[in-house]
Write a structure and sequence with these properties.
The protein has nine helices and eight strands. By secondary structure, it is of the alpha/beta class. It has an eight-stranded mixed β-sheet with strand order 1-2-4-3-5-6-7-8, sandwiched between helices. Helix 5 packs across helix 6.
């Protein structure tokens, strides 16, 4: 399968980000990837390419640039500066722009589109998916959730948002996650169960926060190897993508 990839810019394409998808004419399944706190890194581009090779038209919107922080890289500014200064509402607004861009592409079957979020992206994707019933599947790679009260920037508790999802989900966490520790993971598990949708919850007895990302301290290659076929199988079933 031939895959097309492009770096999109606001000037030329109307929206910044990274695009990868199969070269096809007939509409097929698609994924919106919501990046981690370090932005659109090489790692998340590789993830997009992997999904594209499976037949998914995949788009990673550059959320940081879209909220007003253009830069070649956000590896250093994303976690400590941009994330702290941007509300969940603002993140959802720009994720929605990425969603519209993806659904407007002619090679996308709008009834077969899912959302995948990593780390910070898993957390803010919850807010987007909870308010977007058109999403057909949600993949949460260790959503960054802390046991903290609501604030003006983060007005909704994430376990409350999880209860509002109206699509099947697969969520993956590791036992060594010190950002979202096991007691918080358990709260999230109960919330996902409460939404009444199909749920796959995978708890690995190893692996820290970011266990599929080689650039993080929590990277665990064995957990990453185990996680990938689980996600592939889930998306194939939920988005009807049997090649």
């Amino acid at each position: 399968m031939k895959v097309i990839e492009r770096h999109l810019t606001a000037e030329q394409d109307g929206i910044p980000g990274y695009f990868a998808g199969p070269d096809r004419r007939d509409p097929g399944p698609a994924l919106l990837l919501v990046h981690q706190n370090t932005g659109v890194t090489d790692y998340i581009k590789i993830e997009a390419l992997k999904f594209a090779k499976l037949g998914y038209t995949t788009f990673v919107p550059n959320l940081y640039e879209m909220v007003g922080f253009p830069a070649v890289t956000h590896i250093h500014t994303g976690p400590r500066e941009i994330q702290l200064r941007t509300s969940d509402g603002e993140f959802v607004r720009v994720i929605s722009e990425g969603w519209r861009y993806l659904l407007e592409r002619p090679e996308v079957d709008t009834a077969r589109v899912g959302v995948t979020g990593y780390c910070m992206g898993g957390r803010i994707a919850l807010a987007f998916v909870a308010g977007t019933p058109q999403v057909r599947a949600f993949v949460g790679y260790y959503p960054t959730v802390r046991d903290q009260p609501p604030t003006e920037m983060r007005p909704r508790l994430y376990w409350d948002l999880a209860r509002e999802l109206r699509c099947p989900s697969i969520v993956l966490y590791g036992a060594d996650d010190i950002v979202t520790p096991v007691p918080v993971q358990e709260k999230m598990w109960q919330a996902f169960l409460a939404n009444g949708q199909s749920l796959e919850w995978h708890y690995f007895p190893f692996g820290g926060h970011g266990f599929v990302d080689p650039g993080t301290a929590g990277y665990h290659p064995h957990a990453a190897e185990l996680a990938w076929p689980l996600v592939v199988d889930f998306l194939a079933r939920e988005l009807d993508n049997y090649l």
